[in-house]
Amino acid sequence: xxxxxxxxxxxxxxxxxxxxxxxxxxxxxxxxxxxxxxxxxxxxxxxxxxxxxxxxxxxxxxxxxxxxxxxxxxxxxxxxxxxxxxxxxxxxxxxxxxxxxxxxxxxxxxxxxxxxxxxxxxxxxxxxxxxxxxxxxxxxxxxxxxxxxxxxxxxxxxxxxxxxxxxxxxxxxxxxxxxxxxxxxxxxxxxxxxxxxxxxxxxxxxxxxxxxxxxxxxxxxxxxxxxxxxxxxxxxxxxxxxxxxxxxxxxxxxxxxxxxxxxxxxxxxxxxxxxxxxxxxxxxxxxxxxxxxxxxxxxxxxxxxxxxxxxxxxxxxxxxxxxxxxxxxxxxxxxxxxxxxxxxxxxxxxxxxxxxxxxxxxxxxxxxxxxxxxxxxxxxxxxxxxxxxx
Length: 390
Hints:
Layout lengths: L1 H169 L22 E8 L2 E9 L4 E6 L10 H6 L1 E2 L5 E2 L2 H9 L3 E9 L4 E12 L8 E3 L3 E3 L78 E8 L1
Antiparallel strand pairs: 1-2, 3-5, 3-10, 4-5, 6-7, 6-10, 7-8, 7-9
């Protein structure tokens, strides 16, 4: 039995070996076939390369023939070149002679240029002298005009002071305490008021609202009766009713502030809380229309509402038809009114008027002084801007 088992095991092992050998034989047969294919391909490639080699030899022979012809041409060209060399030498001699003549001409031109420079220098010196004389004459004329303007301004100030004196003599009402102000009628209380005619240099005579303490009102908002959403020309010339709401005009403000230092006072009223606030600046000055009425100076701030106007200092005036602010869209759009905008929304004293002090249209800006009111849903209901010579 044991022998039979061993025989079976041996037979099985042999069968497995035969199977493996058959597999290896198949693999070897396959590899031999692949090698045969590669040999056939290599043979074909060798044949192709032999054909290319034959063609190359043929091309080389052709190129050798061409080279022989080129050598002949070169020899012929060399012979012609010798002849050209002689001609070139002759041309070089001519060029040398021309160069000598050119140097002589250059020397003459250089002398002429020196003479021209001396002449130009003298003309430039004379032109500069004439310009200096014209400039001095212009400055002298300007100083004369400034002196005339100062005289006219002083005469206007004398007339204004006379008017104020008469107003003081005819009105003995005592100044009331500011805490008792009624926001609906604040402009008629606390200060003696008058209307007088003011004459400014190069500007027609106009009526203005003055206060007994020497202040001149240049802007007032109190009841929404006047439209402040206006073009450049209206803000330049002024608009409104001095008995109610008005803006005096940028030309007039410039003329009043240019010859003498002025202080600025702004009074604000909030109907929703009954609060009154103020801002004061001690050196207020704006430029001319040529300077786009730039807010040149404010001076030092004192007050109770915060120094938010400082962000607009050095800014030029903007209206809905002429933008000079620093924002991507015109800050005067949407009824915001003209102002010295830097960025929109911080100080909009010419903005839309909301009677009860509540912004009922979210798409529009009201009257704001954000360092004081802070809430865009609330709109100030009273503004008075005044200036006074220091």
